[in-house]
C-alpha cells in the first residue's frame, strides 16, 4: 500500500515561475509514489488577507493554477480546507492537548513578538489568535488525513514537529494510535529560480514572472531581465547568467548543452539569449496558460472539481474525527 503525502498550499498570492519550479512541479511529482493529497489552506490565508475580493480571487487562481499545472483531481484528493469542517472539529480537540508554551515558541509568533519589542510596541501588537494558534490548525490539517509524509520547506519543519508533539500527546493520553505521527520531508534541492533582478524570484522582491502571464507580457518580462554589458562577440559564462539558469529549467539537456556552447563560443548577444529563453518558456507554459484561462472563465467547472474533491476528503476526515471523538468520550 502506498504511503500518504499531504501538500498544503497557502493562497496568498498569484503563482509565478519560482513557485512552479520550486513548489508545484516537485509536489505534483509525489502523485507517482504516494497516495497524494493536496489542499488549499484558505483559513490559514485569512490570518493575513482581510480583503474578501482579493482572497476569493487568489483562492480561485491558485486552485486553477494547480489544475492547469497538471494536478489530476481524479487521481489525487484536491480540496479547499474551508470545505472540510472536520478540520475545525479536530483543531478544537487538539487545542486541549497543545501547551500554550509550545505556541509561544513557534517561529512566526516569536518573530512578530521580536519585531514589536524592537519597535517598542506592546509585545502582542498586531498578533491575532489565528497567527498564535496557526500550528494547531496546521496539525489538524495534517493529522486529519492520516498523513505519513508532509513535504515542506525548511521554514515549516517546526510546524511538523509541533504536529508530532500534539499527536503524541493525544496518543499517550488515550494509550492508542488515535492519530498517525507524520514525518516532514524536507526538500533539500529544490530549484532556486532567479527573478528579473537576479535575486531569488519572490513576490516580496517584486521580481517575478507570473506563471500565466499572457504571451506578450511573458516576452516583455523576459526582455527586462538584467544582464551585464558584455558585447555580442564576447565569450560568456553560462553558469553566472540568469537567462541561462532560467533556460535550463525549461529546456531539454541537449538544448541546454547547446546553449552553453553558444555562450562560450561568443557571437551571441543577450537579446538572442532572451529570445531563446522566451521560446522554451512559452513552449512549456502556453498549454498551461490555455488550461488556466479556461478554468478561470468557467467558475462552475472549477467549483465542481473542488466540490467533488471536498466530498472525497470528508470521507477520510469524518473517519479521523469519529475515531478522535470516541477516544475522547465525546461520541
Ligand atoms: N504553513 C504552510 C505554509 O505556510 C501551509 C500549510 C498549512 C500546510 N497547512 C499545512 C503545509 C499542512 C503542509 C501541511 O506554506
Helix-and-strand structural type:
mainly alpha
**CA-to-CA gap between the ends?**
30 Å
- Assembly status: single chain
Give the amount of beta strand, in percent: 5-15%
Count the beta strands.
5
Report the principal-axis shape: globular
**Biggest β-sheet description:** 3 strands, parallel
Secondary-structure element sequence? EHEHHEHHHHHEHEHHHHH
**Uncertain segments:** none
Mean pLDDT: 96
Largest sheet, spatial ordering of strands: 1-2-3
Helix content: 55-70%
Radius of gyration over C-alpha positions, nearest whole angstrom: 22 Å
Helix count, DSSP H or I runs of 4 or more residues: 14
| Cofactors, ions, other ligands | tryptophan
A few lines on this structure:
It contains 14 helices and five strands.
Explain how this protein is built.
With 331 residues, the protein is mainly α. 57% of the residues lie in helices and 7% in strands. It contains 14 helices and five strands. It has helices at 17-33, 42-46, 52-68, 86-95, 100-104, 107-119, 129-132, 134-144, 157-174, 215-223, 242-250, 253-265, 270-296, 299-328, and strands at residues 4-9, 35-40, 77-80, 149-152, 183-186. The strands form two sheets. It has a three-stranded parallel beta sheet with strand order 1-2-3. Strand 1 (4-9), helix 1 and strand 2 (35-40) form a beta-alpha-beta unit. The longest helix is centred in the C-terminal third of the chain and has 30 residues, at 299-328. It is globular, with a radius of gyration of 22 Å. The two termini are 30 Å apart. Tryptophan (TRP) is lined by residues 6, 8, 10, 41, 44, 138, 141-142, 150, 152, 156, 159. Tryptophan binds at residues 6, 8, 10, 41, 44, 138, 141-142, 150, 152, 156, 159.
